Amino acid sequence: MFVAWIRVALVPSLLALGSASLHAQEWREPYPEEAQPERYYSEPAYPEPAYRDPAYREPGYAPDEAPRYVEPAAPVSAPAPAASAPIRRATAPLSADFIAQANEAPMAGIPAKSDKPDPQVLKLQVLLDRVHVSPGVIDGRQGGNLNKAISALQSMHNMPPNGRLGPEIWDLLQVAADRPVLMDYTISDKDVAGPFVPVMPKDYAEMAALPKLAYRDPVELLGEKFHMDENFLRNLNPDADFTVAGTIITVVDVGPNAKAKVAHLVADASTRQLLGYNENWDVVVAYPATIGSADLPSPSGIHAVKAVAENPEYWYRPKVNFQQGNNDKPLKLASGPNNPVGTVWIGLDKPTYGIHGSPEPSKIDKTNSHGCLRLTNWDAQELVKLVKPGVDVEFVDQTPTASVAPAPAPAPVPVAVEAGGEQAMPPPLQ
């Protein structure tokens, strides 16, 4: 039986990683999370474990009524176009040549600070995603998640993880620059078939009345499919009808998911990042993460992955957990991308702790969680294929006595030296 080690370590040379709040469930007799006021949504109470059993099937669930649920009778397809009517082609409003600028952006220099999407920043985000250091939601804007991805890339190549963009970063990304970062995509029948939930309720009783906590619309589906911010996707395609199959839109090309198995995980509550290592302690994946809060800090000690579930259900039990609004009875919330734990649950043997997806990818690393480690749905979907039940997990407190993961000595990195002996480094992205 494969048993791998996952360590969460405070290693300055490996991104100064520290404490992670990963809340799992007790698989046979679930325990609640701490009763805390609801923030954006509540952390998972009881996702249904799939254990990766090939015979596992999601339990059916058919409520008497689901007033907010919209399920088309048949997939919505584009009508056959007339000979003189071409299929719709969306254009980008960001600038007349934004697509060309992004695809042809030079692999050098530091993008200027801007409150608008920048073609060079977009290229940087996509190339980082292709080498499996996730920048989070791709939107062409500078931010903390982009800096963290740069740091992870530096750690991947045994460089000091300072998160600064310089020529060496562009050089490392050349391996992923074999094709344009933006591409055409034809919306398929499956993309628009639904079911969709145009207005996703926040109240758990209303959510429990739905047979599926599905996407709100095709834009949300396509945004997650291509790791894109929904508004950025719309702005890139202002004339597109996302509900019509056959419409050609512009999307980013992030490439396939990572394949290297993860033998160690390192999470840091201060930098809000999760890194995955192989057996040799080489970084193979990295993700921005929402990790706990001051009120609900990370656990410590050694634990293990108990089970993994894709498309998990969510169990709400107010008598053993928190109470949301006026809901004083147990509820079962269906699976789906807008489930409180998203599309993935990686549960640990520490009751109520786990790693999971999120229905709000744009808020990753922007809010606090109830203690769980929250990823975008697409990052969680990648990670769940790289880990397995039985993997040991160690979490360490952010203290001077915390244990640390063994790390190879970083390779020397040439840097310019100015008069006076001070190193001249490019400024970090903000």
TrEMBL record:
Residues 29-41 have a biased composition (Basic and acidic residues). The keyword Transmembrane does not apply. InterPro entries: LD-transpeptidase, LD_TPept_cat_dom, Peptidoglycan-bd-like, PGBD-like_sf, PGBDSf, Transpep_catalytic_dom. Keywords: Cell shape, Cell wall biogenesis/degradation, Lipoprotein, Peptidoglycan synthesis, Signal, Transferase. Pathway: Cell wall biogenesis; peptidoglycan biosynthesis. It comes from the Bacteria. Residues 263-396 form the L,D-TPase catalytic domain. PROSITE patterns: LD_TPASE (PS52029). Residues 1-24 form the signal peptide. Residues 29-67 are annotated as: Disordered. The active site is at 356 (proton donor/acceptor), 372 (nucleophile). PANTHER family: BLR4375 PROTEIN, L,D-TRANSPEPTIDASE. Belongs to the YkuD family. This is Lipoprotein-anchoring transpeptidase ErfK/SrfK. It comes from Kaistia defluvii.
